[in-house]
């Protein structure tokens, strides 16, 4: 897959009253053309700073970004403005013009780009059909729901026929059901038009539902990257594990500390593997967590089990699970 975005040694420092603050520390990542790529981290991780560096709205202190192999740092302001026509953004709070109706909101960037009023309106109505909102053409933002406002923002972002769509916490202000519809729309746009989508979020569910690859940020550092399936199945860093293991779930009273996490794919979910393991090993286990998730449109399940204190029995259980081709990893400090 061709790399449409390459981030090379990017650092960003800000100066404040208390001295220098490092928002990004030597970030390197590559995003494939036509990918839906997630960038996730908790508040203060540097996600929004990174997404603004991708189109040089925020100029990195060090390093550079390549868009389709063109070095943004070497571009003059006029060249950057031209490049940004192909890199659109949508935001958490929509950023619509409240005094203009839906059609005029979509026409606005087109008119600035030199479209005639007639051609701009024609294009705006085409875009409203794409986002399934043509019946709201003459409505004003105050008359729209949050999901409808975000659809208008997406239509406006598509007006310039971008190759890349940057989504900065685009679903954070929406309820769960509306979030699902916006994610489905973004997936449809990616599939039908081949637009590369970069999603900035703090919600792992968003990443798992729509993204093929993910980068995890923590306090300005890139701590883990890979396919969403790989990281869900076998997260390597404590930051990735914290995002995937549902935060601070704990059990109050427990004997023994040895816990494992197992991941079920569609193929492995038909066999009653836990029941069979208990029968085979003649010892019980404690289920601390059981969950099913949508990973890129496919069902994937996970469990965290507390194993018996007897080491021989615990090792036998782990070997049994591995023999059934399940992903198994030991989880430290879970209980």
Q: Which descriptors apply to this entry?
A:
membrane, 14 strands, 11 helices, 2 domains, cell membrane, 6-stranded mixed beta sheet, Alpha-Beta Plaits, 335 residues, ACT-like_dom_sf
Question: Topology of this structure?
Answer:
Blueprint: E1 3-16, E2 19-32, E3 36-40, H1 47-53, E4 62-67, E5 70-71, H2 77-84, E6 87-91, H3 102-112, H4 117-130, H5 146-158, E7 164-168, H6 176-193, E8 196-201, H7 204-210, E9 213-218, E10 221-227, H8 228-233, H9 238-244, E11 259-264, H10 273-281, E12 286-295, E13 298-306, H11 311-323, E14 327-331
Parallel strand pairs: 3-8, 3-9, 6-7, 7-8
Antiparallel strand pairs: 1-2, 1-4, 4-5, 9-10, 11-13, 11-14, 12-13
Helix pairs in contact: 3-4, 3-5, 4-5, 5-6, 10-11
């Amino acid at each position: 897959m061709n790399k449409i975005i390459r981030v090379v040694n990017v650092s960003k420092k800000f100066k404040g009253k208390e001295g220098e603050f490092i928002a990004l520390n030597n970030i390197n990542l590559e995003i494939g053309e036509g990918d839906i790529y997630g960038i996730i981290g908790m508040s203060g991780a540097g996600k929004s700073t990174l997404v603004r560096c991708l189109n040089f709205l925020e100029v990195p202190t060090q390093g550079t970004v390549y868009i389709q192999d063109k070095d943004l740092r070497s571009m003059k302001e006029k060249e950057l403005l031209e490049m940004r026509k192909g890199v659109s953004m949508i935001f958490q709070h929509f950023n619509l013009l409240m005094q203009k109706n839906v059609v005029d909101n979509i026409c606005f960037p087109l008119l600035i780009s030199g479209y005639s009023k007639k051609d701009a309106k024609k294009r705006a109505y085409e875009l409203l059909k794409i986002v399934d909102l043509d019946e709201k053409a003459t409505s004003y933002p105050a008359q729209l729901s949050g999901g409808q406002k975000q659809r208008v923002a997406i239509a406006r972002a598509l007006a310039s026929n971008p190759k890349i769509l940057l989504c900065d916490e685009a679903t954070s202000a929406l309820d769960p059901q509306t979030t699902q519809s916006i994610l489905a729309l973004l997936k449809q746009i990616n599939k039908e038009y081949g637009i590369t989508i970069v999603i900035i979020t703090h919600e792992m569910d968003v990443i798992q539902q729509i993204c093929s690859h993910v980068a995890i940020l923590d306090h300005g550092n890139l701590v883990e990257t890979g396919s969403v399936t790989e990281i869900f199945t076998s997260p390597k860093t404590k930051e990735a594990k914290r995002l995937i293991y549902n935060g601070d779930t704990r059990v109050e009273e427990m004997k023994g500390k040895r816990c494992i996490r197992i991941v079920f794919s569609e193929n492995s979910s038909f066999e009653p593997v836990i029941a069979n393991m208990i029968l085979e090993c003649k010892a019980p286990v404690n289920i601390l967590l059981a969950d099913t998730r949508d990973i890129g449109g496919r069902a994937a399940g996970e469990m965290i089990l507390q194993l018996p204190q007897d080491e021989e029995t615990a090792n036998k259980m782990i070997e049994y699970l591995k023999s059934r081709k399940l992903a198994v990893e030991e989880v430290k400090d879970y209980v």
